[in-house]
Write a structure and sequence with these properties.
Distance between the termini: 37 Å
Number of helices: 6
Largest sheet: 7 strands, mixed
Strand content: 15-25%
Radius of gyration: 16 Å
Structural class: alpha/beta
Number of strands: 9
Order of helices and strands: EEEHEEHEHEEHHEH
Number of domains: 1
CATH topology: Spore Coat Polysaccharide Biosynthesis Protein SpsA, Chain A
CATH superfamily: Spore Coat Polysaccharide Biosynthesis Protein SpsA, Chain A
CATH architecture: Alpha-Beta Complex
Helix content: 25-40%
Shape: globular
CATH class: Alpha Beta
Length: about 210
């Protein structure tokens, strides 16, 4: 095991314990087509996200569909019902593979920190099953670290009708990890591309750099 795989900087979790998963099972209704394949600076959006996420965990998978990245694909057990179903599928897959936690990334936000998983793990209390990003006044529930141990509780919430990641996180007592502003459009490292005008803003920011 390398020094990077040790517990240093990762709280009670080792880097080797964490599966990375890009949640890409959404319908992209506001964008008009699958935004994961839209072009940004000459590459597909999913490629930008995967490139930033892959170094942060020993294994990176895609939740939702195949994009030809050579990464494992985790099928969404209940497509079109929101990101919580992707998290549930990822946690089940991770548990079967021997991982203790899952770090989730949004497929439409290509500027998140390169040490995001380390930050989420370092501030995950021993008695908490999830940590998520809060940047300024904005909450980013998709950018989160989930212990596999919370799978049963999340499944119970899902069966009871919960579909919101925020509600699910609040119900299991998730911990907010505050991350200050940094490189990204408008100083927002979690700038997400939901509409074609967001794509233009992201490209304009990259061009200025």
């Amino acid at each position: 095991m390398s020094e990077r795989d040790a517990a240093i900087g990762f709280g009670a979790l080792r880097r080797a314990d964490i599966l990375g998963v890009v949640l890409a099972g959404g319908q992209s209704r506001r964008f008009g087509y699958d935004k994961a394949v839209m072009q940004l600076d000459g590459h597909r959006l999913i490629e930008h996200v995967a490139a930033r996420a892959k170094p942060q965990t020993p294994v990176l998978a895609i939740s939702g569909r195949e994009y030809g990245l050579g990464l494992p694909v985790i099928a969404d057990a209940s497509p079109s019902e929101g990101p919580l179903t992707g998290v549930l599928s990822a946690l089940a897959w991770a548990g079967a593979a021997g991982f203790l936690a899952v770090a989730t990334f949004s497929c439409d936000a290509p500027f998140f920190p390169l040490d995001l998983v380390e930050r989420l793990a370092a501030q995950l209390p021993p008695d908490s099953d999830c940590s998520f990003v809060r940047a300024g006044a904005a909450r980013h529930p998709v950018f989160a670290l989930w212990r596999v141990a919370c799978l049963d509780r999340l499944q119970e919430l899902y069966v009871s009708g919960v579909r919101s990641l925020m509600i699910a996180q609040d119900r299991i007592g998730a911990t907010a990890v505050v991350i200050p502003s940094g490189p990204g459009p408008g100083g927002d490292m979690f700038f997400n591309i939901n509409r074609q005008e967001d794509q233009a803003a992201a490209q304009a920011w990259l061009d200025r750099r």
